[in-house]
Design a protein that fits this description.
Helices cover 32% and strands 14% of the residues. It has a three-stranded antiparallel beta sheet with strand order 2-1-3, with helices on one face.
Length: 170
């Protein structure tokens, strides 16, 4: 899946070798962004790079520190390994506020929660309730827009309390 993500962003690079440092850095960023979107907030990526001359280089990146790919670089083969860490997911979810009861009279709690994660699943798996900060931001905006569409023109929606357990991903 991650290889496909890189090749979708760089379709012309599929058969073009050697790869340069810019392509390797871009591949790291694409992989890391995909892992974040999939709910892996603490993911790290390891790359084994084989040069056109047979030399070997390794690069590790956690998405927070500076990405240091040596230059100049001509890579014949790149192998990326993602260490995902825990899957971050919604363990519990609540809608609160002064007008929450009025808003919930216009829609059910399941409909409101559905803006944040899948609710109509037979099994309540963590993978169906995965969490990413970008998804939360988008969900808040979409939920607010739906409230506006329902006639609550001055509605505000914020993620007021976000508790996370880095060890378990809850």
């Amino acid at each position: 899946k991650l290889k496909r993500a890189i090749l979708q962003v760089f379709p012309d690079q599929k058969h073009e070798k050697p790869y340069d440092a810019n392509f390797i850095e871009d591949a790291f960023v694409v992989l890391h962004n995909q892992l974040l979107a999939d709910g892996y907030e603490r993911a790290t990526i390891h790359a084994d790079l084989t040069g056109a001359d047979g030399s070997h280089t390794t690069v590790d990146w956690d998405g927070k520190s500076e990405l240091e790919v040596p230059r100049p670089l001509e890579i014949h083969e790149a192998r990326f390994v993602a260490h995902t860490g825990p899957l971050f997911y919604f363990d519990s979810f609540a809608i609160e506020g002064l007008s929450a009861s009025a808003i919930l009279s216009a829609m059910s709690i399941e409909q409101a929660t559905g803006y944040f994660y899948k609710t109509e699943m037979l099994l309540h798996l963590k993978s169906n309730r995965r969490f990413s900060r970008q998804q939360l931001k988008n969900s808040v905006n979409n939920f607010r827009q739906e409230l506006v569409n329902l006639g609550y023109r001055d509605a505000t929606v914020t993620a007021a309390k976000l508790d996370e357990d880095p060890a378990t991903g809850k």
